[in-house]
Amino acid sequence: MKFFIDTANLDQIREAQALGILDGVTTNPSLMAKEGITGEAKILKHYVDICDIVDGDVSAEVISTDYEGMIKEGEALAALHPQIVVKIPMIKDGVKACKYFSDKGIKTNVTLVFSAGQALLAAKAGATYMSPFVGRLDDISTDGLGLIAEIRLIYDNYGFDTQILAASVRNTMHIMNCAKIGSDVMTGPLSAIEGLLKHPLTDSGLAQFLKDYQKGN
Ligand code: G3P
Hints:
Helices cover 54% and strands 17% of the residues. By secondary structure, it is of the alpha/beta class.
């Protein structure tokens, strides 16, 4: 299972990279704005800064909602750095743009997926990654993890290569449940990833080992 971090915060990206378990980064315009990264030039530079920190794929989102605009923007994003994955919204022109990029060998991440039907279309269009939003479905009392399971079944039925990228992952249990279901990738905050480290018996066991070591010194 690949671990992506869902942030535009360079310090958190560096911290996750230093842990040695990071496979990539996802961002979106809201995450960029949260870090005060606004305006085209600053945003493009920020993508390159992120690519310089991590080894894996970095999703960069197009803002256009029409086919021609997405192609122009996506090609410019892909030219920025070999690690860039063009992130495209799940709308009609987005599906067409996804097919265009996949035919050209440019990696894509189809985002804002909330149904299995949308996931099927993304796979048919040759998406590299397809991002169902787990947390946002939970927010409206719909089973986000259930959607991941449904998509896993459909993709396995037909051997689609598109990777399920569980997005809007908010906590450690989301990560563990995505792993059980067989999501190819998850993207979430550093806090959710670090939550995997924690167990009270690890802490008390270590404290006891250190205490006992001191007895002999
Ligand atoms: O990866 C998608 C993500 O950025 C959305 O997360 O927590 O805003 O629903 P959230």
